[in-house]
Design brief:
The protein is of the alpha+beta class. It has helices at residues 46-77, 82-93, 100-108, and strands at residues 5-11, 16-25, 28-32, 40-43. The protein folds into two domains: 5-78, Double Stranded RNA Binding Domain; 79-109, no CATH class. The chain is built from three helices and four strands. It has a four-stranded antiparallel beta sheet, covered by helices on one side. The termini are far apart.
Length: 109
Amino acid sequence: MEEIKTLEIQDPVYEETYTAHIQKNGAAWIGWIPEVPEVKCEEHTQEALLKTLVHELHEALETEQEAWEKQFEADVKAGHLDYLSEKAVKNFREGKYYEVEKLQELVKK
């Protein structure tokens, strides 16, 4: 096996950068992304490997996003997040809130 090369891959949809490790292994190339352990690939060329890594990374992120959305919907339906809306209404009634414009100013600082 040859030395492991490290490079960055950016997912354009999620706008996150990930570290890819690639290595020549005999006649093939293997690659993986440590931040997303389910992304592991093997291809015959380095170019094909990089394309597959990008594709598999995006697929894994999509799957993770879908699972998160399903869990969120289930939590909402089950009432697990009701306390947040109750707290927001309470704070509003007590005058503990900011207008959107004020929040935007605070975020810019």
